[in-house]
């Protein structure tokens, strides 16, 4: 077997193993290798509790000491009502997933769902950008470990809804 054939076989096996790992991890909150921000509308058609709109947002990146405090500050700024939050780590990677219940408005207003999802995506992308920049800086400077001291109850204060 020549080197090219061997390399092709190794690449095929690695792709197969990666595909198997992805299938096996479905339904589990496992950080991925790359940085990612996702926001998905959960149930615009059905509506959430009391006719509200539910959506899920996630951010996956390298762990940074400031990450949790940045996320808390961002979530407070967005003024959304947190329904559920999960955090998962694997090595130096972390994945945070949040489900929000917000805006008791016409549950068929898809444009409003998309507007909220876009705002959350943009805010989480800013946190990811800051974490990436901080990672570049942290390679040159010592870490300072901060603790997230207290969580607060989030509520919706949007001008366009009646939460």
Note down, in words, how this protein is organized.
With 163 residues, this protein is of the alpha+beta class. The protein has a domain at 29-136: Alpha-Beta Plaits. It has three helices and four strands. Strands 1-2-4-3 form a four-stranded antiparallel sheet, with helices on one face. Helix 2 (67-78) packs antiparallel against helix 3 (110-138). The longest helix is centred in the last third of the chain and has 29 residues, at 110-138. The model is unreliable at 139-157 (pLDDT under 50).
Helix content: 25-40%
- Fraction of residues in β-strands: 15-25%
**Number of helix segments?**
3
Poorly predicted parts: 139-157
Mean pLDDT: 75
Q: Largest sheet, described in full?
A: 4 strands, antiparallel
Mind telling me the C-alpha Rg?
A: 19 Å
Task: Give, in spatial order, the strands making up the sheet with the most strands.
Answer: 1-2-4-3
Q: What distance lies between the first and last C-alpha atoms, to the nearest angstrom?
A: 67 Å
Number of DSSP-assigned strands: 4
GO molecular function, one term: DNA binding
Keywords: DNA-binding
InterPro entries: AIG1-like
What is the topology?
Blueprint: H1 3-24, E1 36-41, E2 53-62, H2 67-78, E3 81-90, E4 93-102, H3 110-138
Antiparallel strand pairs: 1-2, 2-4, 3-4
Helix pairs in contact: 2-3
Which tags fit this structure?
single chain; 163 residues; alpha+beta; Alpha-Beta Plaits; four-stranded antiparallel β-sheet; DNA-binding transcription factor activity; DNA-binding; DNA binding
Structure at a glance:
The chain has a domain at 29-136: ACT domain (Alpha-Beta Plaits), CATH 3.30.70. 39% of the residues lie in helices and 22% in strands. The protein has helices spanning 3-24, 67-78, 110-138; strands at 36-41, 53-62, 81-90, 93-102.
């Amino acid at each position: 077997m020549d080197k090219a054939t061997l390399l092709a076989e190794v690449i095929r096996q690695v792709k197969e193993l990666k595909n198997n790992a992805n299938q096996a991890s479905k339904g589990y909150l496992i950080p991925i290798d790359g940085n990612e921000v996702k926001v998905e509308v959960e149930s615009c058609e059905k509506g959430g509790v009391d006719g509200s709109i539910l959506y899920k947002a996630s951010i996956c990146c390298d762990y940074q000491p400031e990450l949790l405090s940045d996320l808390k500050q961002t979530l407070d700024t967005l003024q959304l009502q947190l329904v559920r939050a999960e955090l998962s780590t694997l090595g130096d990677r972390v994945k945070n997933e949040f489900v929000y219940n917000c805006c008791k408005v016409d549950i068929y207003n898809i444009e409003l769902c998309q507007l909220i999802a876009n705002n959350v995506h943009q805010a989480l992308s800013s946190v990811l950008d800051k974490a990436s920049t901080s990672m570049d800086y942290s390679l040159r400077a010592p870490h300072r470990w901060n603790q997230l001291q207290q969580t607060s109850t989030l509520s919706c204060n949007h001008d366009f809804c009646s939460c």
